[in-house]
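User: I want to check something. If I give you two sequences, will you return the structure for each one separately, not as a complex?

Assistant: Yes, each is folded on its own. Here is the first sequence with its structure:
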Amino acid sequence: MVAYSIKDLESLSGVKAHTLRIWEKRYKIIEPSRTKTNIRFYKDDDLQKILNITLLNRKGYKISKIAEMPSDEIKQKVAKYTEVGSVFEDQLDSMMLAMFELDETKFNIILDHQISAIGFEEAMNIVVYPLLDKLSIMWLAGSVKGVHENFVNNLIRRKTLIETEKISRCDCDATFRCLIFLPENESHELSLLFLHYILLKNKAKVINLGMGVSLIDVLEGQSIFKADYVFTIFNDSFSDAPLQPYLNEMSKNLKSAEILISGYQAASQKLDLAENIHILNSIDHLKEFISSRKNKLNKSL
C-alpha cells in the first residue's frame, strides 16, 4: 500500500492543501487514514477520487454537488470527459486515471485527441512531459508502481516511433548530419526518441545509435557516418562522477563535429567546455540552434 501526505496530494492533483482540508472537513470527500502514531495519510483510492473530483470541478460542477454524488456517478461523469476534453489540465488528470487503471484504450484516445488537435510536438510539450514530471514526483515519493511507469513509457515510446516513422521518409538536408546516442548508464530513451523526431522534422539526416553506447562505439560511428553534429543527454549517467573527463575525450576525438549536450548533469556540473561543445537547455534552444546553423550554412553557399 502506498501512503500519501496531503502535500503529495497537492503536488499530484494541483489542488492546494488548504483547499483539500476544507473539502475533507466540510464535505467529507476524503477521510484520511492514520498510522499507529496518529499521523494522517491517504491511499491510492483517495488520490484517484481527488483527481476525479478535480476534473469535474474544472468542468463547472460545484464541490457541494460532487460531494453528494455516489462514487459510481462520479466515475460515469468523468468517463464522459476523459475521451473528448480539450483543456490540457483535464487531459493530464484523465491520462493519470487511465494510467492507474492500466486502460490502454482510454490513454491512447486522450493522447490521439491531443495530437490531432495541436500536433505531436505540442502534445508532447504541454501534456506528455507534464505527465512524466508528475510521474517523477510520484516515483520519488514511492507512490507509483513500476507497472504504471512501464505502462506509460511504453505507450509514449510507441507513439513517438509511429510519429517519427511518418516523417522519416521526408526529404532531409544532407548537409545537416546528426549522430545521436545515450551514453552508458543512461536510461531516458523517450528523450532520445523525441530528439530524433525533432531533428527529422527539421529535415536533418539522423543516425540514432540508441542507449548504453560506449564512447568507442560513438567514435566508430562517427568515423563511418561523419556527422556534423553529435547529440547526447546526461541525466542518470555521471551522477556519481565528474562529467568533465568524458567531455574532454569527446572533444579531443570528435574535432570535426560540434558536440551538443543536454540533461541534468550537463546543467548542474561546473564544466569547462571546449569550443566545439555546446549545452542546449530546452527543445526551443535546440530548434534555435538548428535554425541558426542552417542560416549560417545557407549564407556561406
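And separately, the second sequence with its own structure:
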Amino acid sequence: MTTPNPSQNPQSTGRPLLTAAWAAVAVLWLVGGSNYLTRMMLTTMRGSILEEIPMSDAQFGLLTSGFLWVYAFASPFAGFVADRFSRRRVVIISLCAWSIITWLTSYARTFEQFLVLRILLGLSQACYIPAALALIVDYHRGPTRSLAVGLHATGLIAGAALCGVGGWLAAESGWSHAYLLIGLPSLALGGLLWLTLREPHREGAGAAPARLVDAWRSLARPGAFYAMMACVAVQGAVSWTIIGWMPTQMREQFSLGQGAAGFSVLGFLYVAQIVALLAGGHWTDRLSHRHPRARIFIPAIAIACAVPAFWLTGWSPMIGFTLASLSFWGLAMGFLGANMMPIICLVVDSRYRATAMGVLNLFAAVSGGLAVYVIGALRDAQFGFNLILTAAGFGAALCASLLWVVNILTQKQSVNPRGA
C-alpha cells in the first residue's frame, strides 16, 4: 500500500489547499443531493405518471428495479474508471449525463422509453459515488477524512428528502414539467463544478497506472476486504428491510396514516443518521490519532448497540421501542457511512479505492433488493413482522461481527495507518 508524501497532503501545505479541500466537499454536497433527488423522485409521482403513461404495477416497479440492477452491476466498472482516469472529469461527466437524461425523461411517452431512460440513468449515476468519495479522501488525508465523507453523505440524504418536491411539482403542473425543472438546474450545476472543482494529488500516483485485471487481483486477495463485502451485503439487507417495510409495519401495528407512518420511519432514521454522520465523523477522526483503526471498530460498536433495539421492537407492541430501533439504526448507519471510504483506505491498495467502493455498492444494492423481495414473500406466507424484525436484529449482530473481523484482519495485516 502506498504511503502518501506529507508534502503532497492538501492539509499539510497551508490554508489555501485546506480551503480547497472543504470547497470540494461543498460543491460535491450539491451534486450528491442532485444524484439522490433525480433517482428517487420517480417514487413520489406515481399517480401523475400513470395518468399519462398506462402501465401495470409490475411495470412501474420495474422502472426502479431496472435502475437498481444496472446501477449495481455497473458500479465496480464505474469505480475502476475513476481509478484509471481523472476523478474530477468522471464526476462532471456523470453529473451532466444524468442531468440530460432527467431532462429527456420529460419527453418520454411510453413505458419502453421511460425504462430505457431509467437504465441509462443507472449507468450514469453509478460513476458518481466511487469517484466523488475517492476524490474527497485524496483531499482529506488525516484529521478530517471521516467528517468530510460524512458531510458529503448528508447531501445524499438531503436529496432523498427533497424528492417530495418532485411529487408536488407533478401534482401542480405535471410530471413532465417536474423532470424538466429538476433536470436543467442539475445541468447548470455541472458548469459550476467545471469552474470550481480541482483534482487533488492522488495517493499512489507514483505507482503503475491502474489496470482492470490488477484491480480484480488486488481486491480478490484474501484479507479484510472479503469481510468488508460480507458486512456491506448484510447491512444493505437490513437497511432495505427497514426502508421498504417499516412504514407498512407501523401503519398496520399502530393504525397510523400512510403519511404519518412514512414520516415517522424516514424522519427518525434520517435525522439520527445525519447526527451520526457529522458527530461520528468528527469523533472517529479525533480517535484515529491514537487508534488508527477507530474508523473500523467505532462503527462496529454502534451497529452492535442497535441489536437489542431490534429485538425489543420485534417482541413489544410499544411504538417507543420501534422509534428507538429506527434511531439506533440511523446512528449506526451514520457512523458506518462516514467511515466507509476511510475503512477502504485502510484495507485496499490506494490505487483501487474507487473500484472497491463500486464493488461494495454492488453487494449492498443486490442484497438490499433481495431482502425487500424475500420480506414480501414472507409476509405473503403469513410470517409475523415480529419474526422479521428479530431476524433483522440477528442481521445487525452479524454485520457488527463482520466489521470487527475487518478490524482484526487489518491489525494482523499491519496496514500502514498513515494513509488513513
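Because they were folded independently, the notes below concern the second chain alone. The chain has two domains: 6-196, 212-419. The chain has a mean pLDDT of 83.
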